[in-house]
Amino acid sequence: MLAFPPFRLDLDEERLWKGNKLLVLRRKPFAILRYLATNPRRLVTHDELLKHVWAGAVVSESAVRSRLHELRQALGDGVIETVIGRGYRFTAGIAADAAAIAAYREANARAVARHMWLFAMRAGTRLAGLAPDGAATRSEARAWIIEALARCAEPASNATDFAEARAVLADL
After folding, report:
1. Higher pLDDT residue, 134 or 74?
2. Residue-range domain boundaries for the chain
3. Per-residue b/e over 79-115, b at no fewer than 16 CB within 10 Å?
4. Fold classified for 2-96
5. DSSP code string of 93-143
6. What is the pLDDT of residues 66-91, one digit of tens each?
7. Residue 92 and residue 87: Cα distance in Å, rounded?
8. How far from each other are the two terminal CA atoms of the chain, in whole angstroms?
């Protein structure tokens, strides 16, 4: 449970309360709030938000803006700051249950690693089918995938996610 008066965010039950009133949020605005609130006062880039909320899916800029607008309507001004051209920052003061934040971050890291692993499996299968001789070895596919992930990794991305995914790829 996270509290940023007058709000309480129940991460386990996925509920947002304002005082004693339950506020109804759709799935994506809640996911945005969850991610920003568990990373308070830190600049969250647009790409990072896409990676963690939309699992890297291609989403239009207007879709992200409309979900943030919906969230801001529920929260009011002064909770989420837009850093033009860079991303967003959760600015409200948080009184947090540290165990809840740690559990969420761990689960999120595992989910990102699973998505990266699925990408790697698809990419490896495609690579094997597109090799000039008709089939690439597993070690060639693994090396190519690890190199592709290394090139795609951004300094702002979670190093734990990348290290975990790389360890999974090493076992392919």
Report:
1. 74
2. 2-96, 105-170
3. bbeeeeeebbbbebeeebeeebbeebeeebbeebbeb
4. Arc Repressor Mutant, subunit A (1.10.10)
5. --EE-HHHHHHHHHHHHHHHHHHHHHHHHHHHHHHHHHSTTS---HHHHHH
6. 999 999 999 988 899 989 989 999 98
7. 16
8. 38
